[in-house]
Amino acid sequence: MEETTNTELEQNKEKQNETLNKTEQNPLGTEKIGKLIKQFAIPCIISLLVSSLYNIVDQIFIGQGVGYLGNAATNIVFPFTVITMAFALMIGDGASAYLSLSLGKHDKASADKGVSNAIVASVILGIVFLVIGLVFREGLLKLFGVTESSYEFAKQYMTYIVLGMPFFIVTTALNSIIRADGSPGYAMITMLVGAILNIILDPIAIFALDMGVKGAAIATIIGQVVSGVMSVLYIKKFKSVSITKENLKLEAKTLKKICSLGISSFITQVAITVVIILLNQTLAKYGAASKYGSDIPLSALGIVMKVNQIVNSIVIGLAAGAQPIIGFNFGAKKYDRVLKTYGVAIKVGLGITAIGTLIFQLWPQVIINLFGQENELYNEFAKLSFRIFLLFIMFNSFQITSGIFFQAIGNPVKAAILSLSRQIGFLIPALVILPRFFGVEGALYAGPTADCLAFLLAITLVAIEVKKINKMKVEVK
Protein backbone atom coordinates (compact mmCIF):
# COMPACT_ATOMS: atom_id res chain seq x y z
CA MET A 1 0.00 0.00 0.00
CA GLU A 2 2.83 2.35 0.92
CA GLU A 3 4.69 1.49 -2.32
CA THR A 4 1.55 2.28 -4.34
CA THR A 5 1.19 5.64 -2.63
CA ASN A 6 4.83 6.51 -3.28
CA THR A 7 4.47 5.52 -6.93
CA GLU A 8 1.41 7.77 -7.31
CA LEU A 9 3.28 10.65 -5.67
CA GLU A 10 6.21 10.19 -8.00
CA GLN A 11 3.90 10.08 -11.02
CA ASN A 12 2.14 13.27 -9.90
CA LYS A 13 5.48 14.96 -9.37
CA GLU A 14 6.62 13.90 -12.84
CA LYS A 15 3.43 15.31 -14.35
CA GLN A 16 3.95 18.60 -12.48
CA ASN A 17 7.52 18.80 -13.71
CA GLU A 18 6.41 18.03 -17.25
CA THR A 19 3.79 20.78 -17.10
CA LEU A 20 6.36 23.19 -15.68
CA ASN A 21 8.82 22.35 -18.45
CA LYS A 22 6.18 22.95 -21.10
CA THR A 23 5.36 26.30 -19.53
CA GLU A 24 9.00 27.28 -19.37
CA GLN A 25 9.48 26.40 -23.03
CA ASN A 26 6.67 28.71 -24.20
CA PRO A 27 8.01 32.22 -24.95
CA LEU A 28 4.84 33.74 -23.46
CA GLY A 29 6.08 32.53 -20.10
CA THR A 30 9.78 33.29 -20.53
CA GLU A 31 10.48 36.03 -23.10
CA LYS A 32 10.98 39.66 -22.04
CA ILE A 33 7.65 41.43 -21.54
CA GLY A 34 8.58 44.42 -23.67
CA LYS A 35 9.61 42.23 -26.59
CA LEU A 36 6.42 40.16 -26.36
CA ILE A 37 4.18 43.22 -26.25
CA LYS A 38 5.89 44.63 -29.34
CA GLN A 39 5.52 41.28 -31.10
CA PHE A 40 1.81 40.92 -30.33
CA ALA A 41 0.59 44.50 -29.95
CA ILE A 42 2.10 46.18 -33.02
CA PRO A 43 0.35 43.89 -35.55
CA CYS A 44 -2.81 44.10 -33.48
CA ILE A 45 -2.67 47.91 -33.43
CA ILE A 46 -2.08 48.04 -37.17
CA SER A 47 -5.00 45.66 -37.75
CA LEU A 48 -7.36 47.83 -35.70
CA LEU A 49 -6.06 51.03 -37.27
CA VAL A 50 -6.71 49.53 -40.67
CA SER A 51 -10.23 48.63 -39.57
CA SER A 52 -10.78 52.23 -38.46
CA LEU A 53 -9.48 53.42 -41.81
CA TYR A 54 -12.42 51.77 -43.56
CA ASN A 55 -14.69 54.36 -41.94
CA ILE A 56 -12.24 57.27 -41.93
CA VAL A 57 -11.36 56.92 -45.64
CA ASP A 58 -15.04 56.71 -46.54
CA GLN A 59 -15.68 59.88 -44.54
CA ILE A 60 -12.82 61.78 -46.19
CA PHE A 61 -13.77 60.88 -49.77
CA ILE A 62 -17.51 61.28 -49.15
CA GLY A 63 -16.88 64.65 -47.50
CA GLN A 64 -14.86 65.80 -50.52
CA GLY A 65 -17.18 64.29 -53.13
CA VAL A 66 -20.67 64.51 -51.59
CA GLY A 67 -20.47 66.95 -48.67
CA TYR A 68 -21.39 66.84 -45.01
CA LEU A 69 -24.85 65.38 -45.71
CA GLY A 70 -23.11 62.31 -47.12
CA ASN A 71 -21.00 62.09 -43.97
CA ALA A 72 -24.10 62.50 -41.82
CA ALA A 73 -25.65 59.55 -43.68
CA THR A 74 -22.68 57.24 -43.02
CA ASN A 75 -22.68 58.28 -39.36
CA ILE A 76 -26.35 57.31 -39.16
CA VAL A 77 -25.61 53.83 -40.56
CA PHE A 78 -22.54 53.43 -38.35
CA PRO A 79 -24.44 51.90 -35.36
CA PHE A 80 -25.31 48.88 -37.50
CA THR A 81 -21.62 48.26 -38.22
CA VAL A 82 -20.77 48.63 -34.54
CA ILE A 83 -23.45 46.20 -33.36
CA THR A 84 -22.24 43.56 -35.82
CA MET A 85 -18.71 44.14 -34.59
CA ALA A 86 -19.96 43.63 -31.03
CA PHE A 87 -21.01 40.06 -31.78
CA ALA A 88 -17.89 39.39 -33.85
CA LEU A 89 -15.61 40.57 -31.03
CA MET A 90 -17.56 38.65 -28.40
CA ILE A 91 -16.87 35.46 -30.34
CA GLY A 92 -13.35 36.39 -31.47
CA ASP A 93 -12.00 37.95 -28.27
CA GLY A 94 -13.77 35.33 -26.17
CA ALA A 95 -12.23 32.51 -28.20
CA SER A 96 -8.86 34.27 -28.06
CA ALA A 97 -8.96 34.46 -24.25
CA TYR A 98 -10.27 30.87 -24.08
CA LEU A 99 -7.39 29.70 -26.30
CA SER A 100 -4.72 31.53 -24.27
CA LEU A 101 -6.03 30.25 -20.93
CA SER A 102 -6.35 26.69 -22.28
CA LEU A 103 -2.80 26.74 -23.65
CA GLY A 104 -1.50 28.08 -20.33
CA LYS A 105 -3.10 25.04 -18.66
CA HIS A 106 -1.95 22.71 -21.48
CA ASP A 107 -5.54 21.71 -22.25
CA LYS A 108 -5.34 21.32 -26.05
CA ALA A 109 -8.68 19.51 -26.35
CA SER A 110 -10.52 22.51 -24.93
CA ALA A 111 -8.55 24.87 -27.17
CA ASP A 112 -9.49 22.84 -30.27
CA LYS A 113 -13.16 22.78 -29.36
CA GLY A 114 -13.30 26.48 -28.48
CA VAL A 115 -11.71 27.75 -31.69
CA SER A 116 -13.77 25.39 -33.87
CA ASN A 117 -17.04 26.46 -32.26
CA ALA A 118 -16.07 30.14 -32.60
CA ILE A 119 -15.52 29.76 -36.36
CA VAL A 120 -18.95 28.19 -36.89
CA ALA A 121 -20.65 30.79 -34.68
CA SER A 122 -19.09 33.68 -36.63
CA VAL A 123 -20.36 32.29 -39.95
CA ILE A 124 -23.90 31.91 -38.56
CA LEU A 125 -23.85 35.45 -37.16
CA GLY A 126 -22.71 36.85 -40.50
CA ILE A 127 -25.70 35.36 -42.28
CA VAL A 128 -28.11 36.51 -39.55
CA PHE A 129 -26.96 40.13 -39.76
CA LEU A 130 -27.11 40.12 -43.54
CA VAL A 131 -30.79 39.15 -43.34
CA ILE A 132 -31.55 41.64 -40.55
CA GLY A 133 -29.93 44.51 -42.45
CA LEU A 134 -31.86 43.82 -45.65
CA VAL A 135 -35.26 43.11 -44.08
CA PHE A 136 -35.35 45.83 -41.40
CA ARG A 137 -33.40 48.60 -43.20
CA GLU A 138 -36.11 51.28 -43.01
CA GLY A 139 -36.86 50.76 -39.33
CA LEU A 140 -33.18 50.69 -38.42
CA LEU A 141 -32.48 53.98 -40.20
CA LYS A 142 -35.30 55.67 -38.26
CA LEU A 143 -33.98 54.18 -35.01
CA PHE A 144 -30.47 55.46 -35.79
CA GLY A 145 -31.74 59.05 -36.12
CA VAL A 146 -31.92 59.62 -39.88
CA THR A 147 -33.07 63.11 -40.93
CA GLU A 148 -35.10 64.04 -43.99
CA SER A 149 -32.08 65.70 -45.62
CA SER A 150 -29.80 62.66 -45.19
CA TYR A 151 -32.35 59.88 -45.77
CA GLU A 152 -31.61 59.06 -49.43
CA PHE A 153 -27.84 58.98 -48.82
CA ALA A 154 -28.27 56.77 -45.73
CA LYS A 155 -30.61 54.40 -47.58
CA GLN A 156 -28.12 53.97 -50.44
CA TYR A 157 -25.19 53.40 -48.12
CA MET A 158 -26.91 50.84 -45.90
CA THR A 159 -28.40 48.90 -48.84
CA TYR A 160 -24.93 47.98 -50.01
CA ILE A 161 -22.91 47.94 -46.78
CA VAL A 162 -24.99 45.08 -45.29
CA LEU A 163 -23.91 42.79 -48.14
CA GLY A 164 -20.39 42.68 -46.71
CA MET A 165 -21.47 41.84 -43.15
CA PRO A 166 -20.77 38.06 -43.30
CA PHE A 167 -17.18 38.71 -44.41
CA PHE A 168 -16.77 41.55 -41.90
CA ILE A 169 -17.89 39.40 -38.97
CA VAL A 170 -15.83 36.34 -39.91
CA THR A 171 -12.72 38.47 -40.48
CA THR A 172 -13.11 40.32 -37.17
CA ALA A 173 -13.63 37.12 -35.17
CA LEU A 174 -10.83 35.18 -36.85
CA ASN A 175 -8.36 38.04 -36.48
CA SER A 176 -8.49 37.82 -32.68
CA ILE A 177 -8.03 34.05 -32.78
CA ILE A 178 -5.19 34.23 -35.30
CA ARG A 179 -3.32 36.67 -33.04
CA ALA A 180 -3.74 34.36 -30.04
CA ASP A 181 -2.48 31.48 -32.18
CA GLY A 182 0.83 33.33 -32.44
CA SER A 183 0.42 34.88 -35.90
CA PRO A 184 -0.31 38.57 -35.28
CA GLY A 185 1.53 39.45 -38.49
CA TYR A 186 -0.87 37.41 -40.63
CA ALA A 187 -3.87 38.99 -38.90
CA MET A 188 -2.41 42.40 -39.67
CA ILE A 189 -1.85 41.59 -43.35
CA THR A 190 -5.45 40.38 -43.85
CA MET A 191 -6.77 43.72 -42.61
CA LEU A 192 -4.12 45.75 -44.40
CA VAL A 193 -4.86 44.25 -47.82
CA GLY A 194 -8.58 44.96 -47.44
CA ALA A 195 -7.97 48.54 -46.34
CA ILE A 196 -5.56 49.28 -49.18
CA LEU A 197 -8.13 47.99 -51.67
CA ASN A 198 -10.76 50.22 -50.05
CA ILE A 199 -8.48 53.27 -50.26
CA ILE A 200 -7.73 52.61 -53.95
CA LEU A 201 -11.33 51.90 -54.93
CA ASP A 202 -13.01 54.72 -52.95
CA PRO A 203 -11.93 57.64 -55.18
CA ILE A 204 -12.52 55.56 -58.32
CA ALA A 205 -16.09 54.70 -57.29
CA ILE A 206 -16.97 58.12 -55.81
CA PHE A 207 -15.30 60.46 -58.31
CA ALA A 208 -14.44 58.58 -61.55
CA LEU A 209 -17.66 56.51 -61.65
CA ASP A 210 -19.75 59.21 -59.89
CA MET A 211 -21.38 56.64 -57.58
CA GLY A 212 -21.36 58.79 -54.41
CA VAL A 213 -22.03 57.04 -51.09
CA LYS A 214 -23.06 53.87 -52.94
CA GLY A 215 -19.58 53.69 -54.43
CA ALA A 216 -17.99 54.10 -51.00
CA ALA A 217 -20.04 51.19 -49.68
CA ILE A 218 -19.12 48.95 -52.63
CA ALA A 219 -15.41 49.75 -52.19
CA THR A 220 -15.69 48.78 -48.52
CA ILE A 221 -17.43 45.49 -49.36
CA ILE A 222 -14.72 44.46 -51.83
CA GLY A 223 -12.04 45.07 -49.20
CA GLN A 224 -14.01 43.07 -46.62
CA VAL A 225 -14.47 40.11 -48.98
CA VAL A 226 -10.74 39.89 -49.68
CA SER A 227 -9.86 40.16 -45.96
CA GLY A 228 -12.46 37.51 -45.14
CA VAL A 229 -11.11 35.03 -47.68
CA MET A 230 -7.55 35.51 -46.42
CA SER A 231 -8.67 34.96 -42.81
CA VAL A 232 -10.52 31.75 -43.70
CA LEU A 233 -7.45 30.41 -45.55
CA TYR A 234 -5.52 30.59 -42.26
CA ILE A 235 -7.70 27.88 -40.72
CA LYS A 236 -5.49 25.21 -42.33
CA LYS A 237 -2.38 26.89 -40.86
CA PHE A 238 -3.29 26.94 -37.16
CA LYS A 239 -0.22 26.25 -34.99
CA SER A 240 -1.75 25.44 -31.61
CA VAL A 241 -5.16 23.95 -32.46
CA SER A 242 -6.64 21.33 -34.77
CA ILE A 243 -9.95 21.95 -36.55
CA THR A 244 -11.95 18.72 -36.95
CA LYS A 245 -15.52 17.94 -38.02
CA GLU A 246 -16.26 16.70 -34.52
CA ASN A 247 -15.16 19.98 -32.93
CA LEU A 248 -17.16 22.03 -35.45
CA LYS A 249 -20.38 20.77 -33.84
CA LEU A 250 -21.67 23.59 -31.63
CA GLU A 251 -21.52 22.84 -27.92
CA ALA A 252 -23.57 25.03 -25.58
CA LYS A 253 -21.10 24.78 -22.68
CA THR A 254 -18.15 25.82 -24.84
CA LEU A 255 -20.02 28.69 -26.50
CA LYS A 256 -21.21 29.92 -23.10
CA LYS A 257 -17.64 30.06 -21.82
CA ILE A 258 -16.40 31.81 -24.98
CA CYS A 259 -19.19 34.38 -24.80
CA SER A 260 -18.58 34.99 -21.09
CA LEU A 261 -14.90 35.70 -21.77
CA GLY A 262 -15.77 37.97 -24.69
CA ILE A 263 -18.68 39.71 -22.97
CA SER A 264 -16.57 42.77 -22.13
CA SER A 265 -15.81 43.42 -25.81
CA PHE A 266 -19.47 42.78 -26.66
CA ILE A 267 -20.81 45.15 -24.04
CA THR A 268 -18.32 47.83 -25.04
CA GLN A 269 -19.53 47.74 -28.65
CA VAL A 270 -23.23 47.44 -27.79
CA ALA A 271 -22.86 50.35 -25.39
CA ILE A 272 -21.21 52.36 -28.17
CA THR A 273 -24.18 51.52 -30.41
CA VAL A 274 -26.71 52.64 -27.80
CA VAL A 275 -24.70 55.80 -27.18
CA ILE A 276 -24.45 56.64 -30.89
CA ILE A 277 -28.20 56.17 -31.36
CA LEU A 278 -29.01 58.34 -28.34
CA LEU A 279 -26.35 60.84 -29.35
CA ASN A 280 -27.75 61.10 -32.89
CA GLN A 281 -31.25 61.65 -31.54
CA THR A 282 -30.02 64.21 -28.99
CA LEU A 283 -27.98 66.13 -31.56
CA ALA A 284 -30.91 66.19 -34.00
CA LYS A 285 -33.33 67.39 -31.32
CA TYR A 286 -31.21 70.05 -29.59
CA GLY A 287 -29.31 70.95 -32.75
CA ALA A 288 -32.60 71.92 -34.42
CA ALA A 289 -33.16 74.45 -31.63
CA SER A 290 -29.68 75.96 -32.07
CA LYS A 291 -27.95 78.03 -34.74
CA TYR A 292 -26.23 74.85 -36.04
CA GLY A 293 -29.36 72.94 -37.10
CA SER A 294 -29.63 69.12 -36.96
CA ASP A 295 -27.31 67.98 -39.74
CA ILE A 296 -24.15 69.91 -38.74
CA PRO A 297 -23.92 68.35 -35.23
CA LEU A 298 -24.75 64.89 -36.66
CA SER A 299 -21.97 65.14 -39.22
CA ALA A 300 -19.35 66.93 -37.10
CA LEU A 301 -19.53 64.84 -33.93
CA GLY A 302 -19.71 61.66 -36.00
CA ILE A 303 -16.38 62.58 -37.59
CA VAL A 304 -14.89 63.45 -34.20
CA MET A 305 -15.82 60.03 -32.80
CA LYS A 306 -14.39 58.22 -35.81
CA VAL A 307 -11.14 60.19 -35.63
CA ASN A 308 -10.92 59.28 -31.96
CA GLN A 309 -11.27 55.66 -33.07
CA ILE A 310 -7.70 55.96 -34.32
CA VAL A 311 -6.47 56.72 -30.80
CA ASN A 312 -8.74 54.06 -29.31
CA SER A 313 -7.50 51.54 -31.87
CA ILE A 314 -3.95 52.01 -30.60
CA VAL A 315 -5.03 51.63 -26.96
CA ILE A 316 -7.26 48.62 -27.65
CA GLY A 317 -4.63 47.05 -29.90
CA LEU A 318 -2.01 47.48 -27.21
CA ALA A 319 -4.26 45.90 -24.58
CA ALA A 320 -5.41 43.13 -26.95
CA GLY A 321 -1.77 42.41 -27.79
CA ALA A 322 -1.04 42.09 -24.08
CA GLN A 323 -4.08 39.83 -23.53
CA PRO A 324 -2.55 36.48 -24.60
CA ILE A 325 0.57 37.27 -22.53
CA ILE A 326 -1.53 38.05 -19.46
CA GLY A 327 -3.87 35.09 -20.03
CA PHE A 328 -1.08 32.55 -20.50
CA ASN A 329 0.91 33.69 -17.46
CA PHE A 330 -2.19 33.87 -15.28
CA GLY A 331 -3.03 30.28 -16.27
CA ALA A 332 0.60 29.32 -15.55
CA LYS A 333 0.48 31.17 -12.18
CA LYS A 334 3.30 33.55 -13.14
CA TYR A 335 1.68 36.52 -11.45
CA ASP A 336 4.71 38.83 -11.57
CA ARG A 337 4.60 38.67 -15.37
CA VAL A 338 0.84 39.26 -15.33
CA LEU A 339 1.16 42.51 -13.39
CA LYS A 340 4.21 43.69 -15.30
CA THR A 341 2.48 43.19 -18.67
CA TYR A 342 -0.61 45.07 -17.46
CA GLY A 343 1.56 47.90 -16.13
CA VAL A 344 3.40 48.34 -19.43
CA ALA A 345 0.11 48.40 -21.36
CA ILE A 346 -1.30 51.06 -19.02
CA LYS A 347 1.75 53.34 -19.26
CA VAL A 348 2.04 53.18 -23.04
CA GLY A 349 -1.72 53.67 -23.45
CA LEU A 350 -1.68 56.79 -21.29
CA GLY A 351 1.23 58.16 -23.31
CA ILE A 352 -0.58 57.63 -26.62
CA THR A 353 -3.79 59.29 -25.42
CA ALA A 354 -1.79 62.23 -24.03
CA ILE A 355 -0.42 62.87 -27.52
CA GLY A 356 -3.93 62.51 -28.98
CA THR A 357 -5.32 65.01 -26.47
CA LEU A 358 -2.64 67.55 -27.40
CA ILE A 359 -3.43 67.25 -31.13
CA PHE A 360 -7.19 67.49 -30.64
CA GLN A 361 -6.88 70.57 -28.43
CA LEU A 362 -4.34 72.50 -30.51
CA TRP A 363 -4.99 71.57 -34.15
CA PRO A 364 -8.62 70.45 -34.62
CA GLN A 365 -9.14 72.54 -37.76
CA VAL A 366 -6.34 70.72 -39.58
CA ILE A 367 -8.21 67.44 -39.03
CA ILE A 368 -11.58 68.96 -39.95
CA ASN A 369 -10.25 70.20 -43.29
CA LEU A 370 -9.44 66.62 -44.34
CA PHE A 371 -13.18 65.93 -44.55
CA GLY A 372 -14.02 68.83 -46.87
CA GLN A 373 -14.20 72.62 -46.80
CA GLU A 374 -17.42 73.52 -45.03
CA ASN A 375 -19.01 76.74 -43.76
CA GLU A 376 -18.00 78.61 -40.60
CA LEU A 377 -20.87 77.23 -38.50
CA TYR A 378 -19.80 73.67 -39.28
CA ASN A 379 -16.16 74.41 -38.42
CA GLU A 380 -17.17 76.12 -35.19
CA PHE A 381 -19.16 73.13 -33.91
CA ALA A 382 -16.57 70.62 -35.11
CA LYS A 383 -13.79 72.40 -33.19
CA LEU A 384 -15.95 72.51 -30.07
CA SER A 385 -16.58 68.78 -30.45
CA PHE A 386 -12.88 67.92 -30.60
CA ARG A 387 -11.93 70.15 -27.67
CA ILE A 388 -14.80 69.27 -25.32
CA PHE A 389 -15.93 65.72 -26.12
CA LEU A 390 -12.36 64.34 -26.26
CA LEU A 391 -10.93 66.33 -23.35
CA PHE A 392 -10.29 63.39 -20.98
CA ILE A 393 -9.57 60.49 -23.32
CA MET A 394 -6.53 59.63 -21.15
CA PHE A 395 -8.94 58.45 -18.46
CA ASN A 396 -10.81 56.37 -21.03
CA SER A 397 -7.51 54.69 -21.95
CA PHE A 398 -7.11 53.36 -18.40
CA GLN A 399 -10.66 52.01 -18.38
CA ILE A 400 -10.30 50.25 -21.76
CA THR A 401 -6.99 48.58 -20.84
CA SER A 402 -8.29 47.48 -17.44
CA GLY A 403 -11.41 45.94 -19.00
CA ILE A 404 -9.29 43.79 -21.33
CA PHE A 405 -7.02 42.91 -18.38
CA PHE A 406 -9.98 41.46 -16.46
CA GLN A 407 -11.08 39.63 -19.60
CA ALA A 408 -7.61 38.12 -19.99
CA ILE A 409 -7.49 36.72 -16.45
CA GLY A 410 -10.92 35.10 -16.84
CA ASN A 411 -12.91 37.60 -14.78
CA PRO A 412 -15.79 38.51 -17.14
CA VAL A 413 -17.92 40.11 -14.40
CA LYS A 414 -15.47 42.91 -13.63
CA ALA A 415 -14.68 43.26 -17.33
CA ALA A 416 -18.38 43.71 -18.03
CA ILE A 417 -18.80 46.21 -15.18
CA LEU A 418 -16.01 48.36 -16.57
CA SER A 419 -17.36 48.13 -20.10
CA LEU A 420 -20.83 49.13 -18.93
CA SER A 421 -19.73 51.92 -16.64
CA ARG A 422 -18.44 54.49 -19.09
CA GLN A 423 -21.03 54.10 -21.84
CA ILE A 424 -24.19 52.92 -20.07
CA GLY A 425 -23.68 53.91 -16.44
CA PHE A 426 -22.29 57.41 -16.95
CA LEU A 427 -22.44 58.64 -20.56
CA ILE A 428 -26.10 57.90 -21.23
CA PRO A 429 -27.36 59.69 -18.07
CA ALA A 430 -25.08 62.63 -18.93
CA LEU A 431 -26.52 62.75 -22.45
CA VAL A 432 -30.03 62.84 -21.03
CA ILE A 433 -29.36 65.46 -18.34
CA LEU A 434 -26.74 67.94 -19.60
CA PRO A 435 -28.39 69.01 -22.90
CA ARG A 436 -31.45 70.11 -20.91
CA PHE A 437 -29.29 72.78 -19.26
CA PHE A 438 -26.67 73.51 -21.95
CA GLY A 439 -28.48 72.69 -25.19
CA VAL A 440 -26.64 70.88 -27.96
CA GLU A 441 -23.27 71.67 -26.32
CA GLY A 442 -24.39 69.66 -23.29
CA ALA A 443 -24.04 66.54 -25.43
CA LEU A 444 -20.35 67.41 -25.84
CA TYR A 445 -19.76 67.82 -22.10
CA ALA A 446 -21.24 64.35 -21.51
CA GLY A 447 -18.02 62.79 -22.91
CA PRO A 448 -15.46 64.09 -20.38
CA THR A 449 -17.97 63.69 -17.54
CA ALA A 450 -18.34 59.97 -18.27
CA ASP A 451 -14.57 59.53 -18.73
CA CYS A 452 -13.81 60.93 -15.27
CA LEU A 453 -16.42 58.84 -13.45
CA ALA A 454 -15.47 55.62 -15.28
CA PHE A 455 -11.80 56.18 -14.42
CA LEU A 456 -12.58 56.41 -10.69
CA LEU A 457 -14.48 53.12 -10.83
CA ALA A 458 -11.77 51.39 -12.87
CA ILE A 459 -8.93 52.36 -10.58
CA THR A 460 -10.92 51.07 -7.58
CA LEU A 461 -11.61 47.65 -9.16
CA VAL A 462 -8.01 47.32 -10.36
CA ALA A 463 -6.64 48.10 -6.89
CA ILE A 464 -8.79 45.33 -5.38
CA GLU A 465 -7.72 42.82 -8.06
CA VAL A 466 -4.02 43.64 -7.78
CA LYS A 467 -4.24 43.04 -4.03
CA LYS A 468 -5.74 39.58 -4.70
CA ILE A 469 -3.04 38.72 -7.24
CA ASN A 470 -0.31 39.75 -4.82
CA LYS A 471 -1.78 37.34 -2.27
CA MET A 472 -1.78 34.55 -4.85
CA LYS A 473 1.89 35.32 -5.57
CA VAL A 474 2.72 34.63 -1.92
CA GLU A 475 0.73 31.38 -1.91
CA VAL A 476 2.52 30.09 -5.02
CA LYS A 477 5.93 30.82 -3.48
Query: Main sheet, how many strands, which sense, barrel?
Result: none
Total number of helices: 19
Alpha carbon gyration radius: 23 Å
| Tally of strands | 0
Q: How much helix, percentage-wise, in residues? A: over 70%
> How do the helices and strands follow one another from N- to C-terminus?
HHHHHHHHHHHHHHHHHHH
Count of individual domains: 1
Strand content: under 5%
Q: Summarize model confidence as the mean pLDDT.
A: 84
Outline, from the CA principal axes?
globular
Quaternary structure of the protein: single chain
Question: What distance lies between the first and last C-alpha atoms, to the nearest angstrom?
Answer: 32 Å
Low-pLDDT residue intervals, each spanning 5 or more residues: 1-5, 19-23
Structural class: mainly alpha
Give an overview in words.
The protein contains 19 helices and no strands. It is mainly α and 477 residues long. The chain has one domain (33-476).
